[in-house]
Structures are given as C-alpha cells and as structure tokens.
Amino acid sequence: MGEGRCVVLEMDEHGQASLRESVEVQLARFRRGEPDARERLLAAVRPFVVRYVRSRIGRGAGMFESADDVAQDVCVAVLRALPAYQDRGRPFLAFVYGIAAHKVADFWRARARMRDEPYAEVPEPRASDDDPAEEAVRQDLAVRLDQLLRELSCQQREVVVLRVVVGLTAGETAEMLGSTPGAVRVMQHRALSRLRGELRAQGLR
C-alpha cells in the first residue's frame, strides 16, 4: 500500500494542479477583492488543515473532536492573519502550515498541563453510538500508529504526515519544511523503511 501511495503522489506532481497552485489562485482572487474570495480561500486550505491536524493529534476516543476543534482554531487564525499577510517569497500554504504546527504544539502543551492537574471530579465519558468492540479496536490501532510515528525524528514524522497522510507533493512538502524535494524524498524513504522495520519487529507485517 505504501508503494502504491507513493506512485499516486508522483503522478500528482506532474499531473493535475497542485494544492499549492489552487491555494495561490484563491489568494490572488482575495487580494483583488473578488466576492466570496475569502470563503473560497478558506475552503481551499481547510482540507489540508484538517488532515494535518487529525494526523498529528490522533484517532483515539474523543481525539477527532479535539482535532477538529484545533483545525477550526487554525482556520480562524488564518482568517485573522489575512489582512496583515505579506508575501515573503514562500507559498501561502507554508504560512498556513506554520500556524497549524503551532496550534498543534499548543494543544499538546495544554493537554500535558491537564494531566498534571487533579480533577475535582471524574469527567463523564463521551456518549458514542459506535460499537464498543469497534471503538476499542480503533483506539488500539491509534495508539500503535502514534507509537510507530514516535520512533521517527521530528522532521521525518512531519514528512510522513505531509506526504502520506495529507497528500502533498515532494515539492510542496519541501516548501513547508524549508527543504528540497530531493531531501524530502530521501527522508520519506528512510522514514517508511524504519516504520516497516518496526512493524516486522512487532510481528505486524
């Protein structure tokens, strides 16, 4: 599956318009003051924001809700920053990524503080219509995925998230991280090789 996904990504790089190009088109329309341009720009970046934030926060019980709250905060922050945004030679999507990465870091810092603070009372579990067995399996898989990603360096983890989960091209990922497409491909190859090794060591592949 990993190899097939990489093929799709390479086809995107040389085929249809990239996410960056779509966002830049909407940004240009916003700057020209076209009607509904702000909403269209937000619609262009929202899928990227949601996929990135969900992948960084996780899929455990209640985590998707938390991730979507953070994604909404990112979108609001992007809208608030638009009037003062200045083109400094980097794509607008890199600007959005910077905001998203900071919001995710803020989320984990706040969560760490909450774990250190005693609760006055035990919070009631969130009601769910999901089958308990299916929910348990999803949580177990989420924990395993998170543990696997923690085996990578911070930059390798970002490359895997942006390339494989979010679906950016190597060029777009390089622009997010201030790197080069070639370096991104090398990091992706090494990261996926390491993840495959971890899976084999755990008897999962």
Automatic annotation (TrEMBL):
<dbReference type="GO" id="GO:0016987">
    <property type="term" value="F:sigma factor activity"/>
</dbReference>
<dbReference type="InterPro" id="IPR013249">
    <property type="entry name" value="RNA_pol_sigma70_r4_t2"/>
</dbReference>
<dbReference type="InterPro" id="IPR013325">
    <property type="entry name" value="RNA_pol_sigma_r2"/>
</dbReference>
<keyword id="KW-0804">Transcription</keyword>
<dbReference type="Pfam" id="PF04542">
    <property type="entry name" value="Sigma70_r2"/>
</dbReference>
<dbReference type="GO" id="GO:0003677">
    <property type="term" value="F:DNA binding"/>
</dbReference>
<dbReference type="InterPro" id="IPR039425">
    <property type="entry name" value="RNA_pol_sigma-70-like"/>
</dbReference>
<keyword id="KW-0805">Transcription regulation</keyword>
<feature type="domain" description="RNA polymerase sigma factor 70 region 4 type 2">
    <location>
        <begin position="144"/>
        <end position="195"/>
    </location>
</feature>
<dbReference type="InterPro" id="IPR036388">
    <property type="entry name" value="WH-like_DNA-bd_sf"/>
</dbReference>
<comment type="similarity">
    <text>Belongs to the sigma-70 factor family. ECF subfamily.</text>
</comment>
<feature type="domain" description="RNA polymerase sigma-70 region 2">
    <location>
        <begin position="43"/>
        <end position="113"/>
    </location>
</feature>
<keyword id="KW-0238">DNA-binding</keyword>
<dbReference type="Pfam" id="PF08281">
    <property type="entry name" value="Sigma70_r4_2"/>
</dbReference>
<keyword id="KW-0731">Sigma factor</keyword>
<dbReference type="InterPro" id="IPR013324">
    <property type="entry name" value="RNA_pol_sigma_r3/r4-like"/>
</dbReference>
<dbReference type="InterPro" id="IPR007627">
    <property type="entry name" value="RNA_pol_sigma70_r2"/>
</dbReference>
<dbReference type="GO" id="GO:0006352">
    <property type="term" value="P:DNA-templated transcription initiation"/>
</dbReference>
<protein>
    <submittedName>
        <fullName>RNA polymerase ECF family sigma subunit</fullName>
    </submittedName>
</protein>
<dbReference type="InterPro" id="IPR014284">
    <property type="entry name" value="RNA_pol_sigma-70_dom"/>
</dbReference>
